[in-house]
Amino acid sequence: MPSSRRDTIDHIMNSVPNLNFLIKIKGFKIFMIFLTLEHILTHISFSMVSIVITIHLITLFFDEIVKLYDSSEKGMITTFFCITGLLVTRWIYSEHFPLSNLYESLIFLSWSFSIIHIVPYFKKKKNHLSTITAPSAIFTQGFATSGILTEIHQSAILVPALQSEWLIMHVSMMILGYAALLCGSLLSVALLIITFRKNRKILCKSNRFLNELFTFGKIQYMNERNDVLQNTSFFSDKNYYRSQLIQQLGYWSYRVISLGFIFLTIGILSGAVWANEAWGSYWNWDPKETWAFVTWIVFAIYLHTRTNKNLQDTNSAIVASIGFLIIWICYFGVNLLGIGLHSYGSFMLTSN
Amino acid sequence: METLALNVTMRTQKLLKPRTHLLKSPLFPQNSHVYRTLYCQTGLSFTISCKLRISKDKSNTMAEKVSVAPSLSDEGGNTLGSGGVPSKPRRSTGGGFETLKKLPRRVLAILSNLPLAISEMFAIAGLMALGTVIEQGEAPDFYFQKYSEDNPALGFFTWRWVLTLGFDHMFSSPIFLGTVVLLGASLMACTYTRQIPIAKVARRWSFLHSAEAIRKQEFTDTLPRASIQDLGVILMGAGYEVYLKGPSLYAFRGMAGRFAPIGVHLALLLIMAGGTLSATGSFRGSVTVPQGLNFVVGDVLGPSGFLSTPTEAFDTEVHINRFYMDYYDSGEVSQFHTDLSLFDLNGKEVMRKTISVNDPLRFGGITIYQTDWSFSALQVLKDGEGPFNLAMAPLKLNGDKKLFGTFLPVGDPDSPNIKGISMLARDLQSIVLYDQEGKFAGVRRPNSELPIDIDGIKVVIVDAIGSSGLDLKTDPGVPIVYAGFGALMLTTCISFLSYAQIWALQDGTTVVIGGKTNRAKVEFPEDMNRLLDRVPEIVSSSQSMPSDNISG
């Protein structure tokens, strides 16, 4: 009998007055477990990426050690799974896709970097991307876990406008796009540095060790050059390999940017469709939108410069480097100002 | 399609003899004569067959002869059923008409110039960036102060620049719109003068008949002792469309990647067209309606451009049945809901829906969005009298959280310093009450029926009446823009595909292979090498092979 069962339940509820409270406690415990799990995963992934970076540096300063290289790849895979676990944990306990604030989007960005790193590894293709993606992953991961953003580590509640299926599509596509475009444009920056240095070397041939004076930031690119140079010890071949490297860099930068451009296009357009559902207009000239469009246009320019043989390589690399800055303005700058409709999870809002 | 011709079978029985590689025999040099004569006499009638194998052991003389037969190429092309129409040279009609005709062509040439298009894109990007830096849509006084002539930004940028160039409303300023229109013209010109001809060329598949031409390609390789037919089969297995004619092979893959950039440009034009229609032919309006009241759609909507024409649906009357909010456990608002009923002119309900943020109502081309809310009134009982409706006023405080307040006068309403009970609310959930001195008295929820005693006055908060902030719009451009969005996403993805072309020529026992691709230039040689590794090598030691193996 349903009524008698309800009576029983009522009876139990009455006889245990603190049941509700207990349930809350239990929920809190689960929450704590999730939180601890998240902490562990964050730390593992962060220390993993640091180890990978150290290995990269070691292989740079000493000869290439195959075992070390292998272990660095394994480290990146571990990192990837840790960040994936982190995102899944957050998803489960916050009950929405973990992309509602800047911290989560940074974590997702470093996840994107690591997936860009991993895909070529599983395809057994060795390319220059890994030297870009690993440091990018550590910087984003480090920035996300560093003290600046500790206040917004808590996964926030979703404001009404964000409660939509479009959230997953729009934000994940945008951030994947940012990650790919950042990688591609960093490759272009590397290309520019190498080209620039080559010219400089012709100017002052006597000073061969000028290269070695370049600072930490360029060390990764030196590493790439070492990769290419490992087969040869002839300095006379250096220029040949260098031009080869420049071509390779240009090519990979082009492919990765094309991929990122697809993600960015899908991201912007799905955002427009979402905006038409939520705000009543598919385009509002909101600062974030506008900057995403600026990014899109700059990389469209890049793709067009690649089609023209006269403008290839150096010119297109300059455009991509401009794009690199613009992505950061779009991703962070607009949020820093905390203006417009996209101000969720900005620094200002959380400090208020 | 019969274009999948891989193996050549002549209509003569004689040539069907050497079926396999193993059968390659000293017989063949004799056959080759027959082959050649047939080749020249009957033209080519190829049929598709993957089972039949022709011998690769053609003599060098054979190859020479074959390469002399380009006169057959047109016929062969037609047989294979893929229209290889050469481009017709444009004929001038001559006279003064010519100069008139030349003008648009010159304009086209200028517009389709890539550096111009790139600078247009840079200009648009720059203007947009400027549009986010300069505050938009403020009163002129604001710009007078912010960009005063005493202290110009960058040494020259003053309010005169902002206002004369229309940078205070950047995204509708003539400069910005003009640049966009120019870019649209460039898009069209580029599609017309460059992309379509390139695509036409791509559709025309062409054989290369000399080994030198093939060796000039970006990727070249030579396979000794290989068969062009085997290569064809392997290429087909790798997703290539393969055309074979005599000793020549032509294969391509990813033609869609060649056409997709046209699609991207067309999709962008479609979006621009849709955007223009949206800007000129839509109506919009917003309204804040207290729960329980009505409004007529047409009263709210205002036209945005000269193409805006009202429809019958504008006579619809909207009734707000209920406005309510959902809350998280922490007390923050999780969602807004408005229960709406639409009535036509006769008072008949035509639609009813509860809308919320991200879930608008669509009726007859009109879309009603939940965008805002407000606190309309508070129903209170004072000492059991009433209920009184107290209008709530929005209070501006710093921060963007809403705060509403009202005042219940106590005592003589005509006295100069009137006192009363203040009530404040952030949402419809709880009301904070303050006594006559301004001290905190308590918090009550509406509908709780729990009275609060403030200085001997019993106040019961009966209900909190919210008003729903609705945005209404009609936008005829949306279907076009959405079509453009879909096309743009699709064509951008397809554009990532690489268009690869491969030519091969059987040169005696060796096969010369050349290929090129437009995008995946590094993967292409790797893929090609992998494919070419799979081409079987022909063990053609005619001496060691017992010749009596040959059978009918």
UniProtKB/TrEMBL annotation, chain A:
Cytochrome c assembly protein domain span: 99-342
Compartments where located: Membrane
GO CC, any one term: membrane
InterPro entries: Cyt_c_assembly (IPR002541), Cyt_c_biogenesis_CcsA (IPR017562), Cyt_c_biogenesis_CcsA/CcmC (IPR045062)
UniProtKB keywords: Cytochrome c-type biogenesis, Membrane, Transmembrane, Transmembrane helix
Coiled-coil residues: none
Membrane topology type: Multi-pass membrane protein
GO BP of this protein: cytochrome complex assembly
Keyword Disulfide bond: no
Transmembrane segments: 43-63, 75-93, 105-122, 169-196, 252-275, 290-305, 317-341
Pfam families: Cytochrom_C_asm
HAMAP family associated with the record: CytC_CcsA
Protein name: Cytochrome c assembly protein domain-containing protein
Organism: Ilex paraguariensis
Taxonomic lineage: Eukaryota, Viridiplantae, Streptophyta, Embryophyta, Tracheophyta
Automatic annotation (TrEMBL), chain B:
GO CC terms, sorted: membrane
Pfam family name, one: ResB
Highest rank taxon of the organism: Eukaryota
Domain ResB-like: 116-376, 429-528
Keywords: Cytochrome c-type biogenesis, Membrane, Transmembrane, Transmembrane helix
Region (Disordered): 67-97
Locations listed in the record: Membrane
Transmembrane segments: 107-134, 171-193, 259-279
Swiss-Prot/TrEMBL GO biological process terms: cytochrome complex assembly
Topology in membrane: Multi-pass membrane protein
InterPro entries given in the database record: Cyt_c_bgen_Ccs1/CcsB/ResB, ResB-like_domain
The protein's name: ResB-like domain-containing protein
